[in-house]
Structures are given as structure tokens and as C-alpha cells.
């Protein structure tokens, strides 16, 4: 967490954040070792290119009254690669995404964007520019856990805030249930967010019980015979919060004793949409440039509700089509405000589909095999589009490897805040500004390390991908896949991979060595649900039970 | 076969073709029973629409000096759905198809085009407008067989010839090795074609022996120890023929005693490209409208030859990228001749990839599961693009079901020759002219019967697909797949299919009943290689052996 020293803060809050107070720093950013190998080979060319890039960024800033570009970063949930933005693919699934297709046509497709394998880690990677495992973030927390993104981590919002941006977060957050992890304590001036995620918000409802998509949580789903432990099933979870930096949060949209239902979920989705549009209005009227995150909850949904709109009809397919229209309103708003040219709009998914619901949700694996929670390309390759009319030619494509953490570093550069990136830890995010400004082929990453939780499962280099052998198995048996010829990772031809075996093993060694030099930081832990002014009695009770059961 | 009565023909030829001499006929075309069910529901609307369509076709004809449109029909081999024409998908495979992408952008994508499961049947379906099983065509003939497309069949070239078109065929033909089956005896004024296919032309070569892609044919591939039968391996096959309607063929490009090699194959591909461009020049200078088929042999290839051009580098991927540039020359030629507006250019694949070479060829299953020879969507769903500047808006999509046989009937309508479609047999091809003229949602087919050889394996209706149960297995165990939600046909949810079980069984019954009313016609059979003026001695010997071994 970075604070501007002139911002008044509560004393307690100041103490929590003191350790991570970061100032402008110089010296090189510490990247993973594999980047150093690339840098060695290209240092001279990249320095030249960076000079051009800086000049171009200056010109753009001058043309925009001295301000760097606004950034609207839209991250949606669990959508397979190919599911949005490609017109012909809309016909494959019977899901129409005309507005996202239009965004893609007006900007560039980042056709080789890698995320982490699930929601929380991907969001951590974006926020911190680091592999989430380095921040102790390895899995998804859907209930009370007393854990979350540590105050020690420096987020992209903190970097941009420090650089003079106004910052807002609207929608899914999913970085934990402790005060220090909340967005208004991680660099966002304003935040509108649910503490947990869609399993709580759409499945743990009476409608969820009748949806046939998950069995056993709601008491109306079956008789309660033989139930001896009344509290095995999570209850009393906090829902939607709203807060400003330096203040406490309040829970909105649910009264004490009131049951959360699917209609609350619908209302929450509509509220975040409305608040995004309102924030755009507000932010555009300010002097400062802005960074706005809109992380919708839809298309994740587990209940068939409302009028059917798609030919597909699946319970998540439907909501992607609805969301497409909503995102269209956001894009239109950006243009209507007259800020389109110098506002970067990025849209991407946070990981692959929830393949457990494949065939019913309406989503399918399409091109890449696997989905959320898996190191396969289907888990970590996503549709990603970027529109920046002043800079990026309509209908372009960039097939260079980009990892979601690169956005951290790239946003920092674009916002003029690279100096606020910490130098005391590994930053995985690589500055890809040259790629955005000079186009396809100007990427600076040719590798990705893919974790499932705390376990390194795959290493990508160029078009090759090593699936790590099981512990104890000989390295020579590990499969190496050629992703261009075999995008579904079906054929680990030994004869095609033997040449690469040692090179991949070296990559793993280098990566582990750097971890030894810069050990992982711990996940933040604290009393859950602190800093919420109007905690409902049932949430207080749930928290008490959490303590008594986990002492 | 239809002949224009004023065309002089050799007497022998006339006798062969007498049985199929077809004259203008009236009365309804006999379609499969499932179409009648659709027709019943839409007769009135379709009649109205057809009146509009006829008026529009008349206007177009008037604007074009009284002539119907030219048709350039390009059919390529064994390319998976999604492999060409979709820019972002080019990055998935590392195969660039900019010219095909451009064709798609200038015209319409037929996003639900179905073919037959392999080369010969798909081509028969296009040529005859019939499920190939009705013409006795069930499999692929790669060697001497004395079989081929029967003279009894009426081809689209015959229909268009009768309607006043000039007709040419260049490239792969693959409809058998008997004289009556050759293109110049099936309605084409001019024909340039190999008798067999790419296994002979690219694999059965010294380079093929060293390619590692097929083992055992060429004598240099291994020592000949224990070989007792010297003639188990095919030899002496005829290669490329050229002919004009009513005349005999001559073999070109290979001298008696000369060995066929990969460089002959390359030369053949380049020759067909050159001849296509020459034919375009010639045909455009004639008074009559024209129908030109260009059926390239590439991308099928089994040898790594020449300079590498694609990032993928697979031995078929390479040739798709090369072919893309060649097709660009064809598209440019159409435009340069000033006939672009009223020349329909169609490009499609004949079936899915040869999945046996997946991972090595550079092609992969991409979106749909399965490939050539299989009833799965990966076998029969292909990329298909149509450009017709006077009529079709750039960048359109048509997601209606179209079967390759529909092109027969649609071309007949567009060419003003519907009256020449025979009324004494089932024509599976449905007139999709309204779809082309009035766009997405105006298709007249919602079903496909999918055969593997002589066996009905799947029935498609709307987005549902029944995989037929094995003989003797109860119908209730048959899987029904929802292709929008499950494009890879992985999840035969019984609960989603029980409602459709009886409806699908009825579809099968109706289909079989119509076959009983209009039984399949036999495949043509005759002495192989008749009608070739310069048969090489080795071909004569191979034919003799064929007789002595199959008497």
C-alpha cells in the first residue's frame, strides 16, 4: 500500500500500512530471471525503442492537456477463449456479443493473453504485478477466512494514485475478507464491491436450491433429517460494501434478518452497472486522469431467471449476452463524454470457463482444453481486447505473449508512475508499452510460469509448453506441447520435445533460484469483517462461529 | 449427364450417356421427407419470398447484360473449421491466411456449412445435389478401382451447361478412374485434373518415404527382405489428365518410365494455379456466363519442401499459407477482369482435417471434435465464405444450416437452370437462394443426415444432434448433443434429450421410407483408364494386374 502523505488517515489504519509505505524509487525493477535473459539479448534495441516510446507518450500527454490517458479496465469472469469478440464464434455458441465484437473491431485483440488459473490469483496478479504465489495468494476464498491481499503489497491503484490519478473500483473484488485487503485500503478512492463471490451471491439462494446446479446448501432444498451440525453450511456472509479511501465500509442492499435471493443478485449486478456509469460521469468531470476498474459479476450465474435472450439459453451464456449490452453502455458513455480518444478501454476474462458446468451453463471449452483451476491453456488463455483510438489502429492483433501482471507495469508506465513500482521484491509484470504503441511483434515476454495454487504446473516458452512431471517422476517423461500445432495439448510428442527438455529444466531452476533470493511474502491475516460500520447480527454470529471453530 | 443436343459427340460416348439424357422438366423437385415437413409449414411465406427473389435475380440479370452471375467455386481439402478466414484464429495456429480473411471480410461467412465426411462424397454431393450414398458413392478411391461417378447422375456442370454457361474444372476431381466419371464427361467443357489423389501424389514418392509420414510404400524406404508379392503396393497409377468435353484425355507432366516425385507434385499444384488464372482470362472474354471449379490439391501435402513460410511450420499448415497467397491471385484476377461484382466466389473446405496427422501436419481440431471420415462436427463442419459484391454485404454472416448439396440447387436457380434438375430421383440439395439474397435467418434447411460411407451415423435437427445407437442397441441410449452448448459433442445429457428421442426416430424412419420409394442408384463401373490417349506402359500393366487380381 502506498499512501500520499497529504491524505489524512485514521491512526490505526496508518499503523497497519506503515510497513508498505513506498516512495519513488530508482534502479531497475527486479523481474523474474527469464526476463533478464531476454533483456541481455535486446538491451540496446529496447533502449532505443523506449526512447521513441517516451517521446510518443509525451506527445500524447501534450495533446491531452498534459495528462496521461485514462484507463477503464473491465475484467469479467470465467469466459473461454473465443467466446466473445469474434463474430463467427458467436454463431458457434449461439451467444451474440455484438458490442464486444465492436470493441475488438475498434481496437486490438491481444490474442495471447495469459491469466492465472482462477479469479482471486488473476486479480492479485493484475493488482500487484506479481505472480500471486509471491503474495501468498494461492486460492479462492468464498467464505469467512480472515485472510486477504496483504497491506505489504503495492497495487496498481496505489501506483496510479501516487502518479496523480483518481481511482475507483466497481464490482467483484475477491481479495479477501479483511480490512487491509479491501479496495479502498488498496489504493482506490472509491469502492463498490461484494466481499465474497458468485457462489454465495447466486447459488446460495432459494432459487439456487431449485436450479439443479448445486445441491445441499439451502434448507428448502431437502429435508434436514440427520443434520446434527447446524453450522457446517456457511451463513451470515457479508454481501455488498461501499467505501471511500481512509473510511470504513458500509454494507448496502440487505437488511438484518433479510434473506439474500437471486433478485438481490440481479439488483447487485444492475447497481454496479449504474455505479460504473455514474463513476465515469464523475471521473470525467475531474481535473485528474482516472483509473476505473469495472469487474462485473455476470456472466457468472447459476439460476435461469428473466426473459431468455440468447439462442444458447445456458444460464451463463444468457448473462454474457446481457452483459454485452451493458458493456456497450459503458463504451458508449466513454465516447459520449468526449474522452474516447485518450481513454484506454481494456476488456478481458479472468480465466477459462467453469468446465464443471459445461453443457449446462452454455459455455464450452471451444478451442483450448481445460478451464478454471487448470494450468491447461483452457484455464489461462482468455479473450482480451484493448481500445485506444489515439494510438491503436482499429482491427489490429497482437499475438505476442502477455501475462495479466504485465498490465500492472504497463499501466504504471502509461500513467507516468514507473518510479512507484517497488524495487524490493520480484515484479513479474513486464512493461509492454512498446507493444501497444508499436504493435504486433514488439512484445517483451516469451514465457509464462503457470501455477495451480502454490504448485508450479506448466512452463510456457515461445510456442512450447512443458507440463511438469509429477513429483519424483523423471524429467524426460514430461510432456512438451507445441501450442500452434496442438492447441489442445493432446500430443506430447517425445521426439519433438527432447531438444527442449534441458532448456525447460533450466527455466524452472532459474525461477526457483530467484524465489530463494526473494522469498514469497505472506498472505494478509486479520480479524474478518473489520472496518464495516453496519455489520449485520448474523454476520457477527458467523464471525464468532468462525473463531470458535478455527481457534 | 445432360448433353446439349447441338454438341457433336463421339458415337460410343453418346451410347454411354443416352440413359441419363435429361431434358427440361417441370413439377416439384423430389426432396428428402424432412424438407416436405418444413415446406408444409412455410409454403406461403416461401412462395412470396420466391417471387421477390425472382424479381431480384431478374434485376441483377438485366443490370448484367441479361446474363446470370458467374460462379467460381473453390473447394480445398481437409481444413478444420476455424482454420481460415478468422483473423484471431490465425494466431491460434500460427498460420496466416490474410487473403482468405479478406475474402471473408468482403463477403459472407456461411457459419454452419455441412459437408460429407470425406473428399469423394463431398464432391459428389456438390456435383449431384444428392447424398452421395444415393449415387452409390460411399468411399474414397485412391488406386485403380474401375469405379466412379455414374453417367446416370446429373451434375451441376451439366445443369449449368444446359442453362448456357461455359464450364471448366481445374484441380482435384476424385470421382473415379472410369471414363464416364471424368469431368469432361460430366458437364465440363474443359478439364485439368489428376485421376487419383494426394496420397498417390505426395506420399507415394521417394520424398514421402523419407518424410516419416507414411512408411512402407517406396522401395527405398526399407530393404525388400521377405517381399514375395511384388505388386501388393500400388504402382503405375495415372497422374494428371487434360481433356475437353466429347474428347479423349491425355496424361501430362510425366513420361513413360519416369518416377513421380514431390517436385512433380509441386509442379502440378503450380500448373493448376496457372491454368485457373488462364481459364479465368478465357472465360471472362466469352459471351456466356461461366462456372469455374478450382479444387486445389494443397494444403494436402506430406513432405517438408521449400522455404518455410508459416510460424506453424507443419507440412500441411505450410501449404495452407502458400495456398492463401495463390487464392489471393485468383481473387485479384476476378477483380482485375472487371467481373467482380457479378461473379460469385465461394471458398470452402471439403471436410475436417486428417486428424491422424494432428500435431505433425500443423492442423488441429480447433473447435469441433473429430475429423475427416467421422460424423462428428469436426468431420463435417467447415469454413465457407461467399463473396458476391452486387448482392451480399461485406462482413455478413449466415448461421443457417447449409449442406454442400444445397449449392447444386442454388447454383441451378442462380443460373436460371432449375428446370434441368431431374425429377426422377431424390435431390437433397435445397434452394438457398433466398438466404443469399435476403441474408441470415432466411435458410430453408434445419436438418442434416450424416453418413460415414453407407452407414447413417448422425442426424442433425436445429442445434440438436443424434448419434445413432449401434445396431441392436436401444434408441433410448442414443446420445443427443446440444451443439451450441457443447460443440465438441462431449455430453450426451439424457435429461436434455429424452424429449427429442421420438422426434429423431421419426426423422430416421421418414428418411428410410423415402429411400425405399427412390432406391439408391449404383456406382458407375467400367474398365479403368479408358478414354486416355497416351496411357503409359506402366499404367497398362497396372490395369492388367488389376484385372487378373480382381476377376
From TrEMBL, chains A, B:
Domain Sulfatase N-terminal: residue ranges: 69-416
Domain of life: Bacteria
Co-factor(s): Ca(2+)
Leader peptide range in chain numbering: 1-24
Documented EC number(s): 3.1.6.1
InterPro entries for this protein: Alkaline_phosphatase_core_sf, Sulfatase, Sulfatase_CS, Sulfatase_N
GO molecular function: arylsulfatase activity; metal ion binding
Keywords: Calcium, Hydrolase, Metal-binding, Signal
Enzyme class, UniProt record, top EC level: hydrolase
Protein family: Belongs to the sulfatase family.
Protein name: Arylsulfatase
Source species: Ruegeria atlantica
Gene behind the chain: atsA_3
